[in-house]
Amino acid sequence: MHTIKLPRQIVNKMLAHAQSKTEQEVCGLISLRNDKQMQLIPISNIATEASHFFEMDPSETIQAMKAIRDEKSELYAIYHSHPCAPATPSKLDVEKVGYPDVLYLIISLNTKGVLELKGYKINNNQVISIDLII
User: In the list 13, 51, 73, 100, which could disulfide-bond 123, CB 3.0-4.6 Å?
Assistant: First the structure.
């Protein structure tokens, strides 16, 4: 699995979320139901240095995961933005992976006027680039 298709609507919501807070990293989850219905769930970034790191609000994350289970969906992807860095996982991004089976999406706002979105599978400190089709 090296190519993944993302609905334009989900990508637009993710990019809008990243653009809404250009000075800090935004983050969230994407759920998938019946292999076709995706839902974007923004989560607050509570990191003390939110301009360079993200830490998902634990209570919001628990609520989101419960909603995903209740809707008979699954956690499909975790996304976050890099306001001033490329759309590649940082060393800390790789070390903090808690769900090795999900897709990791990174949005870069590093180049003015250009939004970059890249996907990865990260497991055991191994980073595999995933081609995204929108």
Answer: 100
